[in-house]
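FORM 12-B: Structure-to-Sequence Request
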């Protein structure tokens, strides 16, 4: 399943990462540079496993830890109704 922004969400890049604004609720999330890059890669269709491998190659983290952190981030943003499509392949 492809990850997408919720229909009521707009995204904006910042100097420090990414902001996701839910226009229906007025809630927003400020993501740091790493989290913003993860979300952008997933929205562009990159599989979560590949994103985890790239993080493990560029940061002091294992691919397993990166995958767990990506899953937690996607889960939190999905529960906040900022992302849709979480499930298989994310």
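FORM 12-B RESPONSE
SEQUENCE OUT:
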């Amino acid at each position: 399943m492809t990850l997408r922004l919720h229909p009521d969400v707009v995204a904006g890049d910042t100097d420090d990462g990414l902001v996701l604004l839910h226009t229906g609720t007025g809630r927003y999330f400020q993501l740091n540079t790493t989290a913003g890059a993860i979300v952008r890669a997933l929205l562009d269709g990159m599989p979560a496993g590949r994103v985890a491998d790239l993080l493990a190659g560029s940061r002091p983290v294992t691919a397993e830890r990166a995958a767990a952190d990506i899953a937690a981030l996607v889960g939190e943003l999905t529960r906040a109704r900022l992302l849709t499509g979480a499930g298989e392949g994310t």
